[in-house]
Amino acid sequence: GRKGVTAYKRVGRRLSVLGASPYAWAVVVSPHTGFSDQETYSTLGQPAAGLQEWIKQKWKENYRITGVAAKSSEWVVAASKNSDILEQRYCMLSNWPQAIEWIKESRQEELRISCCSVDGKGQYCVVMSKFKDSSKFGNQECANPSRVWPQDWISKCWDERMRITSLCGAGGLCTVVMSSHSGFDGQTWTVSMEWPEDWIKQNEGDNFFITSCCALRGSWCVVMSTLTSKLDPDYNKKQRAHTTPDWDTASKWIKAKGERRGCEGEGRGEDCKGEGSNNNSEGHDCMIS
């Protein structure tokens, strides 16, 4: 296949959450995403215009961007079919003030932030989409980049029935996007020095599953949510998460886990363990249900 591109066509789970810290990628695969074919593109070792050309081609083939993350200067973008996204645009911007102006312009055309990320140089990638459900993400707010996790602001938005729908962190600064009509009901978050495996497993017992993640000052910020609609009662137990330093390893893991359509006989500890993770990590968490 094309260099930098990985296709996932014969898999049961799809990449649902994509995040990164300065040292590792975080990937989460889930069932019932609704996605059919899916591809990822890594900019590592690729020409500068390669990502833009790939996205344009995927749009022509009815793919839509469903995930974006950056580790140092390497960008990875996930594109999927059957995403329920009608229209889409994205922009690479050198700072957050520029991003905000572009976001405001796009909102006037009824587009909403569907995913975003920032690289180690502070360059932002913002993806905005118009959904088949016109009410989705109807009201949306962004926290300005901060060196501190904006827990008071999040609590205020929770009170207004908004939920975290995107996270964007480069290690030193973090931006949180919250939206109404997200499809999420309960929500909880943690900030942990290590990938919070024990916290994730604990919340899986209450039907929470991972919906976004990013890095902030050497820590992982992970958000878990419950759904307003009722799906497979074991939905969250069939989700798998992994962290690894290089994207090639991550893409191979996505394929390996995706090809397992069921849960029978799968070892939970092995499936969810991230490289370099610490099962005894401590984090701060807050929950709304």
Description:
- This protein is α+β, with helices and mostly antiparallel strands and 289 residues long.
- 20% of the residues lie in helices and 39% in strands.
- It has helices spanning 50-60, 96-107, 151-159, 197-204, 247-258, 268-272; strands at 5-8, 14-20, 25-30, 38-42, 64-71, 74-80, 85-93, 112-118, 124-131, 140-142, 163-169, 174-179, 184-192, 209-216, 219-227, 240-244, 283-288.
- The protein has a four-stranded antiparallel beta sheet with strand order 1-4-6-5, sandwiched between helices.
- The longest helix is centred in the middle third of the chain and has 12 residues, at 96-107.
- The radius of gyration is 17 Å and the shape is globular.
What secondary-structure arrangement, pairings included, does this model have?
Layout: E1 5-8, E2 14-20, E3 25-30, E4 38-42, H1 50-60, E5 64-71, E6 74-80, E7 85-93, H2 96-107, E8 112-118, E9 124-131, E10 140-142, H3 151-159, E11 163-169, E12 174-179, E13 184-192, H4 197-204, E14 209-216, E15 219-227, E16 240-244, H5 247-258, H6 268-272, E17 283-288
Antiparallel strand pairs: 1-4, 2-3, 3-16, 4-6, 5-6, 7-9, 8-9, 10-12, 11-12, 13-15, 13-17, 14-15
Query: Strand order, biggest sheet?
Result: 1-4-6-5
Distance between the termini: 45 Å
Count of individual helical segments:
6
Q: In percent, how much strand structure appears in the residues?
A: 35-45%
Averaged pLDDT: 86
Any idea what the shape is?
A: globular
Count of DSSP E strands? 17
Note the main sheet.
4 strands, antiparallel
| Structural class by secondary-structure content | alpha+beta
Unreliable spans are 261-285
Q: What string gives the helices and strands in order?
A: EEEEHEEEHEEEHEEEHEEEHHE
Cα-atom radius of gyration:
17 Å
Q: Helix proportion of residues, in percent?
A: 10-25%
